Structure formats: C-alpha cells, structure tokens
Amino acid sequence: MHTVFLIGSIASGKSTAARYLERCGAHRIDLDAVCKSLYVPGSELVVALSRTFGDDILDEAGAVCPRILAARAFSDAASTARLEALVYPALEDRLRALLAGLRQDIDAPSLVIVEVSAPKSFTDAFTLADEVLAITAPYEVRRARACARGMEAADFEARDAVQLSDAELCALATTVIENVGDDTALFDALDSWLERTCPALLSGGAHRA
Fold first, then answer.
1. Is 14 assigned a ligand-binding role in the annotation?
2. Can you tell me which residues bind ATP (predicted)?
3. Which of 5, 103, 130, 175 has the greatest CB tally within 10 Å of its CB?
C-alpha cells in the first residue's frame, strides 16, 4: 500500500486531483472530513473549541458550525495556530488508526491518497506518507479560480495568508505538479505520475467524465 499525502494551497486544484485519483481507483482520505468527524457534541475537543473561539460556534444541539468556526479560526495566523494546536493531535491519531486499518484489510488498496488542506502544522504526521505530492499554481491563477466559484476575494486573501507558500509546499514535497491549465492538462500530469507510481490504476482516460 503506497500512501501519498496530497498538498496544495487554496484553489490550486488539489481537491480536483484527489477526486480524479479516487475515480482511478485510489482510496481517498479527506482530512477535512476526518477532522469534522472529531467534532462530537460535548466532547473534550468541542468544549475546548467553544472556550477558545466562543460559544456561538455551536448550534442549539451543541454541534460545531463549520462556517462560524472557519471565520474565527482563519481570521489571522494566531487564531489558526490555536485551532491547529487543539485539533491536530487528535487528527493525527485518527489518521494513524485509519491507515493501520487499511493495511490490515485483506483487500488493502494499492494507493491511498490523503488530502491535506492545511499542512503547515501537520508536518509531524508526514512520516506516515511514502510520498508527498504537491499541486501548485501561481497566486493570481488561484485567486481567479476561487472568485469564479463564488468566494469573496477578501476571504481568499485571508485564507491564503495563513497557508504555506508554494516554495514551502515544494520543500515538503517529493513530487510537484504545477496546475496552470485546465482539468485535462492536470489529469494528463496525474496520469504520468500514476504511470510511475501505480500503473495498475491507469485506464486510458476512462475516469475523466
């Protein structure tokens, strides 16, 4: 089982790449979804989050409201660091358990893609990966993409400001794919990578629909 951490800045095309590789047959783990699964109402983590970011991040049932939490946690670098300090230890433990379970499965996947949205303070967990694949794109390209899908420019700029730069992402990566074109160009680059990494998953473009 080859485990790959997939990293990239906001609107780089990281999620598009992850979904394509999943369609090709890779097992995809979305760390954002795993993180949200940790937000169990009444848990120590949720209580700590409400104390740090305000009781109004919780709804009437005590569940975390992701939109409100994100607005508070990504408002500046210090707030983001507080969120990561609370969440990442539990997230790493959950990821270790998920990967261990996959390895023990008799039908273990040949390729596991772990989509890491915010690697800045999660680098200790990178020892779990056999490879780190970075999807990059210039700032203006990413900004245009984000705004085209409805994100406010100010929101994009605030989120981008607390993320790693492309240079920092590339320093973490063992492989880098620059995504400046359309999806077809990205899929071509991913197919070339798959040919080297896990050729059994190549399908001659059958998964591009």
1. yes
2. 11-16
3. 5
Using CA atoms, how far apart are residues 209 and 205, in angstroms rounded to an integer?
Answer: 8
Q: Tell whether 9 is in a known binding site.
A: no
Contact 125, 92 (CB under 8 A): yes
- H-run or E-run covering 141: helix 139-148
pLDDT tens for 129-167 read 999 999 999 999 999 999 999 999 998 988 888 788 889
| CATH of 2-201 given 3.20.20.140, 3.40.50.300, 1.10.760.10, 3.40.50.720 | 3.40.50.300
Q: What amino acid occupies position 60?
A: E
Say what angle helices 14-23 and 183-197 make with each other, to 10 degrees.
60
Residues β-bridged to residue 6: 115, 133
121 labeled part of a ligand binding site: no
Q: Residue 120, annotated ligand binder?
A: no
Structure-block tokens of residue 164 = 């790693």
